[in-house]
Specification:
Layout: E1 2-6, H1 10-21, E2 25-29, H2 33-40, H3 51-58, E3 63-66, H4 69-74, E4 78-81, H5 95-109, E5 115-119, H6 127-140, E6 148-152, H7 162-167, E7 171-176, H8 179-188, E8 196-200, H9 202-233, H10 238-246, H11 280-293, H12 299-310, H13 313-322, E9 330-334, H14 350-359, E10 363-367, H15 372-378, E11 384-386, H16 390-394, E12 399-402, H17 412-417, E13 424-427, E14 440-442
Bound molecules: nicotinamide-adenine-dinucleotide.
Length: 445
């Protein structure tokens, strides 16, 4: 199929590259000419494992990037809208979606073939049919359902695993205004064999995405609240508590022969310094705001956000147990991205933690395997020494704060063993064995 993908961020670029890899002919569109150039030169503008290889393979053959949206629509059978949908403090900001819908409408005016427009961005229930569809009709002068199709296909990829998640999805949700639309969407995904497909309406598809993210965010805040309770009570480690909870056979079913299906903790029921990223915080807030508009106070999800908002502060509280004044204390921050496998700094818990440390005049070194450049854009006041090497970062540190669960940090017990004096390690993700480190503290201890 001829596919247009509008917006080449984490979702748009990964979707475009993977759909090209599956044999479709993809045109990626972005307003950012620099990104477009990079894509055409097979240089991924973001870090995502496996992306570069697939981009190199497909750029110039199955995939091209352009800034001309109209051309992309005229040359494609289906278009996926993958622009950002930030939360503006009161509600979801649909500026980018609306602008793209207007432009697609304009292009549809000149298109003679049937075309399906699909929202892939995360949007609150009702957006595709009540905002996108009317704009498409207004600017094309045509009728949805008769002249073109409109659908919603939420994206579930996780940053850090985005390429694998797209290539091997656990489900595909096809929300369409009619069967004709859903059939075209199904054709797009026909190379993904054996995957469970949910055929539904756009509005239901929209809520499936929010519900999935809200459930995961709730699990994280729940675990963090239990972790904070362990700290308050004393003498209990949240890691032991959650291990005991996780072994419930409803969470990790026991197969014939006694083996567990998923005996390891999922990261969602582990205590830590909070969730971040471009999705969970904004999506939960947007859903709560949307519920309020509909007259429903969403108390549980409101609390999920409140718990998360204060969670990064716990790292500084732990530090203050050991160093009542942080002024002049040498702190090594390990991990800046909001999760491993990505350079995405959006809403990363590292941001409020670093800001808090700067306010208290700590002496800060920081290291992240891939997010250094993104972090430097946020903290460009010369107050942080960004390092390229893990051992140089911890050298001379009095406190080492681990904030992102990068595999590379498993070497820390070995690295810290010979340091004199021993630094305090604050494990913000509870990823290391506390018995392997001389001075260890962490969330939920
Ligand atoms: P992003 O900010 O990384 O990318 C958005 C891109 O859209 C940018 O490259 C921007 O230049 C481009 N853009 C903006 N206006 C445009 C226009 N008029 N025409 C063409 N391009 C335009 O965003 P993202 O993280 O990829 O997220 C996109 C959507 O997908 C959001 O709704 C998000 O909630 C959702 N989502 C994100 C993830 C994730 O892990 N990042 C996962 C699932 C869903």
């Amino acid at each position: 199929m001829q596919v247009a993908v509008i917006g080449t961020g984490y979702v748009g670029l990964v979707s475009g590259v993977c759909l090209a890899e599956k044999g479709h002919s993809v045109i990626c569109v972005d307003i950012d000419a620099e990104k477009v150039d990079k894509i055409n030169n097979a240089i991924p503008p973001i870090y995502e494992r496996g992306l570069e290889t697939l981009l190199k393979k497909n750029a110039g053959t199955n995939l091209e990037a352009i800034t001309d949206l109209k051309k992309a629509i005229l040359e494609s059978d289906i278009s996926l809208i993958a622009v950002g949908t930030p939360f503006d403090g009161n509600s979801i900001d649909l500026t980018y979606i609306e602008e793209v819908a207007r432009q697609i409408g304009e292009a549809l005016k000149e298109k003679t073939d049937y075309h399906v427009v699909v929202t892939k961005s995360t949007v609150v229930p009702g957006t595709t049919e009540e905002t996108v569809l009317p704009l498409l009709e207004e600017y094309s002068g045509k009728k949805a359902g008769r002249d073109f199709g409109v659908g919603m296909n939420p994206e579930f990829l996780r940053e850090g695993e985005a390429v694998d998640d797209f290539m091997f999805p656990d489900r595909i949700v096809l929300g369409g205004i009619d069967d004709k639309t859903r059939n075209v969407m199904a054709e797009l995904y026909s190379p993904f064999e054996g995957v469970d497909i949910v055929r539904t309406t756009p509005k239901t598809a929209e809520l499936i995405k929010y519900t999935a993210n809200s459930l995961l965010a709730t699990m994280i805040s729940f675990s963090n609240e239990i972790g904070n309770l362990c700290t308050a009570l004393g003498g209990i480690d949240v890691v032991d508590v959650m291990r005991g909870v996780h072994l419930d056979k409803r969470l990790t079913p026991i197969m014939e022969g006694g083996e567990r299906i998923n005996p390891s903790f999922t990261t969602y029921i582990e205590a830590g310094c909070g969730f971040g990223g471009s999705c969970f915080p904004k999506d939960v807030k947007a859903l709560v705001a949307h519920g309020k508009k509909a007259g429903l106070a969403m108390r549980l999800l409101d609390s999920v956000i409140q718990t998360n908002d204060v969670q990064p502060q716990k790292i500084i509280e732990i530090m203050k147990k050991h160093y009542p004044s942080i002024n002049g204390v040498k702190v090594a921050i390990l991990g800046l991205a909001f999760k491993p496998g990505t350079d995405d700094m959006r809403e990363s818990p590292a941001i409020p933690i670093i800001k808090g440390l700067i306010d208290e005049n700590a002496v800060i070194k920081a290291y992240d395997p891939v997010a250094k450049e993104e972090a430097m854009k946020l903290f460009n006041n010369g107050k942080i020494d960004f390092c390229d090497d893990l051992s140089l970062t911890v050298e001379g540190a009095e406190v080492v704060a681990l904030l992102t669960r990068w595999d590379e940090f498993n070497i820390l017990p070995e690295l810290l063993k010979n340091m004199d004096p021993q630094p305090l390690l604050i494990d913000g993700r509870r990823m290391l064995n506390k018995d392997d480190i001389t001075r260890y503290d962490g969330i939920g201890l």
